[in-house]
Amino acid sequence: MAKRPAKTAKPAKPLKARKVAKAAKPPASAGASTIDVLNVNAPGKTYKRDAAKYQAARKAFPAFMPTKAPGLNQTEMFEAMRKALPAFGSTSGWWMKTVQLDAEARGEVVRDGGKPLRWRKVK
User: Fold this and answer.
1) Which of 41, 69, 102, 112 is the most buried (most CB within 10 A)?
2) Is 18 part of any domain?
3) What is the pLDDT of residue 52?
4) What is the mean pLDDT of the chain?
5) 66-123 residue pLDDT tens
6) Structural domain tally of the chain?
7) Is residue 36 helix, strand or coil?
């Protein structure tokens, strides 16, 4: 039986770049605005948040924060924000944490040591 010549592999063709459509941004509602907030856990980085909701949460936050130790723990802050902003529903805790981290990054709120962690306003 005669041997067939070995096939040589052809060099692979480079892949063509495909055009990928960018995802459409959701339409901005009329008058929508954002505000930059800080996070004590990511120094120097800012995050865009809904300005109206942030301002409402920011206004309610200092009203229930004590200035003397011991401050409030996280659960107590969640409950206080829920009472202060019932219209926020299940997101009130998220907004409380956003405002707390921003206030802490700005030096307006400090952590008191110990377990559980407690926060209080700076005088």
Assistant:
1) 102
2) no
3) 92
4) 81
5) 998 888 999 999 999 999 999 998 898 999 999 999 999 999 999 988 888 999 998 7
6) 1
7) strand
Rg of the chain, C-alpha, whole Å: 27
CA 22 to chain CA mean position, Å: 24
Question: Considering the domain boundaries, does residue 19 fall inside one?
Answer: no
Q: What is the CATH number of the domain that holds 86?
A: 1.10.10
* Angle CA 11–16–21, to nearest 5: 160
Query: How far apart (Å, rounded) are the C-alpha atoms in residues 33 and 26?
Result: 14
Decide if 13 is inside a domain.
Answer: no
Lookup: tokens for 70: 């011991």
Give me 115's structure tokens.
């377990």
How far apart are the C-alpha atoms of 82 and 74, rounded to whole Å?
A: 12
- For 111, the enclosing helix (H) or strand (E) is strand 109-112
The identity of residue 20, as a single letter, is V
- Helical H segments across 10-73, by residue range: 51-64
DSSP 55-110: HHHHHHHHHH--SSSS-B-HHHHHHHHHHH-GGGGGGHHHHHHHHHHHHHHTTSEE
